[in-house]
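Q: what does this look like with magnesium ion bound?
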Amino acid sequence: MSTAVSTEAQTPSAGSPAIAVRDLRFRYPGGADVLHIPEFHLQRGQHAFLYGPSGSGKTTLLGLVAGVLEVQQGSLHVLGADLGALNAARRDAFRASNLGYIFQMFNLIAYLSVEENIMLPCQVSPERRRRLNGADLREEARRLARHLGLGDYLHRNVLQLSVGQQQRVAAARAMIGAPSLLIADEPTSALDYDHRGRFLDLLFERCDATGATLLFVSHDQTLMGRFQTQVALSDINRAAPQPTQPPSAPNGQAG
Ligand SMILES: Nc1ncnc2c1ncn2[C@@H]1O[C@H](COP(=O)(O)OP(=O)(O)OP(=O)(O)O)[C@@H](O)[C@H]1O
Ligand SMILES: [Mg+2]
C-alpha cells in the first residue's frame, strides 16, 4: 500500500537486549544536559516501571528510545537497532514496525474515528499487519476497544471523547499488531480505578502473549508492585535535575 514505510535494514535482531544505553547524553537547544545515562539495559520481555519527579527527563528518555528524538551523544540500541545510525525517516519506519507508544499527550489523529485511530499502525506498517496472523484488522481494533470499554464509541470522532476515553484509544492503538516494545508515558493518568485495572490487565496479558518488552512511566507508585523491574530515573541519570520553577518565586516558595 502507498502509505507503507520501508523497514529494510531496521529489522530487529532477536538476540539483543530490548534497550541498551551507553553514555547517552541529551540536551534541548540552549539548555543543559537533561540526560546523561552511563549505562542502562532492559532485557527482552521485561516489564519495567520508570519513575521520577516531573521534569526529570522521563518523556525525553522515552522519546529517544522511540526514535522521536535524535541521539546526540553516546549509543542507544533498541531491539538491536543502533538508533544513532538511523536518520529521522528510518527511525520513523523502525518505530512504526516495532514499537507501540502511548504518548503522554495521546497524539490521536483528530479527523479519524476511534476505530480508525486504533487500526492506523497496521495500515502504516505491513509488519504490524502481518503480526495479526490473519485476523481481520477491523475486528482486532474492535476487540481491543471493547476490552477497554470503548465498544460504544467505535465510530465517534476522537475529539468528542473524554480525556480518559482518548487515553484508552491511544492504548489500544499502541497495542495493535503486537509491537515488540511497548512504551507507555503516564498511560493511566486520566483513568478511574476500574478502567485502570482493566487497562493494566490487558497490557500485561498482551505483553506476555507476544513476549513484548514494556517500559512504563507513571507517577502513580501504587502500580509499581505489578512490575518485575522498577527503575528510578535518578539512579541511572547523572545529569543535574532541571529546575521546574523560576528560582525567584515569591517568598522563596515554589509553585
Ligand atoms: N521540547 C523541549 N524543549 C526544551 N526543553 C524541554 C522540551 N521538552 C522538555 N524539556 C525540558 O526537559 C526536561 C525534562 O522534560 P521531560 O518532559 O522529559 O520530563 P518528565 O520527567 O517527563 O516530566 P513529567 O513527569 O512532568 O512528564 C524539563 O526540564 C523540561 O522543561
Ligand atoms: Mg513526561
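The longest helix spans residues 193-210. The two ends are 51 Å apart (CA to CA).
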